[in-house]
Amino acid sequence: MLPCTGRIDESLLLKAFENGADGVMVIGCLEGDCHYVNGNIRARARVERVYNILEQINIGPERIRMYNLSAGEGAKFAAFTNEFVGRVEELGPSPINLARSNGSKESEQEVQAT
Amino acid sequence: MITGTPKPIEEILEMVEPYDNIIVAGCFGCVTVCRVGGDKEVQVLSSTLRLAREAAGKKIEIREVCLERQCDPEYLEPMRPYIEDYQAVLSIACGAGIQFMAEKFTKTPLLPGINTGFLGVTERQGEWTERCQGCGDCVLHLTGGICPVTRCAKSIFHGPCGGSVQGICEVDKEVKCGWQLIIDRLVSLEQMENYGKLKPYKGWDTSRDGGPRRIIREDMV
Ligand code: SF4
Ligand code: SF4
Fold first, then answer.
1. Which residue of chain B comes nearest to A10, CA vs CA?
2. Which ligand neighbours the alpha carbon of B182 most closely?
3. Residue B55 is part of which domain span?
C-alpha cells in the first residue's frame, strides 16, 4: 500500500512482474480527487508506459491495468478486483512464470536423470 | 543540456543478444534531466531486458549503475575493479560519455542504449528543442540572443531567405524562421544596427569543419 499512486513509477511496476506477478492492478483515487493534486494522473501515464513496454516484450499488456475508486466504494473495489483477477486467470501464467516453471521442471528432470 | 531519445527496445535486445551478463550504466548529468539515461531509466531498462530475456528462455544478469557523469575520468574509474566481470556495458549516457567509457575500458564492448540528440532546452516536461550547435564563435550578442546557426535551417548569416513565409520556415510548418525571429527581436530591442555588424560570411574553422575539436586551457592544465 502506498499513500498515493503518484509514488508508483515504472520500475516498481516492472519489479512486480520480475517478482512473479501474473498481473498488476493499480488502484488510485478518482481523477480530480487526488489529495496530492495529480498523483493519480501521473500514475496513469506511468501505467500506460508500462503497458507499452509489456506489449513490446510480449509479456502481454493486458496484465496491467489502472482503476480509479474512492475510498468509500468497497463493492466496486471487489467487483473490479474480481474482474481483473478473472481476466488474468484467463490469460494464464505470465511468460516469465512459464519460463521459470519450465526451467525448474528441466532441472528436476536433470536431477532425476543423474 | 545534451538531449537524447531511447533506442527502441527491439534494437537494444538485438545488441545485447550475445551476452548474458552486462552492466547497464546511466549518467546523473544531462540525460537524467531529459529523462533518457538517469537512475530511473537504468532501473526500467534493466527490468525490461531481464523480463524480455527470461520470457525468451535466455536469462540475463544485469548490474545497474549510474555515474555522476560519464564524460569525466574520475567518475569512470570506480568501475575499473569490476568492469571485466561483465561481458559488455549498455550505456544510456550521451555519445560522448559512451565513447569516453569505451576509451577507458578497452577490453569491454560498449553498446549505446540511446540516440543522442542535440544541445537544447526544456520547453516543458517532455518537450526539448535545439538551441546551439557549438560553432565555436558565438554571435548571440549581435542577433538578439537567437542563434542563426541553429534556428535557421540553412544556418545562413544574412537575414531571411526566400523560403521564409509569414515567419515560418519552408522546411516545416512547425518551424519558425530563425531569421524572422532575429529581426523581430533586434527591432524590439532597437538594435537593428547589430545586423550590419555581422560578418557577411561566417568562418566555420572553429566549428566541426576542422574535424574533432579540442579545447586546451593553458591556465588550467
Ligand atoms: S556523459 Fe553526456 S549526458 Fe552525461 S553529463 Fe556528460 S555530457 Fe551530459
Ligand atoms: S552562434 Fe554558435 S555558439 Fe552561439 S548559440 Fe549559435 S551555434 Fe552556439
1. B44
2. 2
3. 2-118
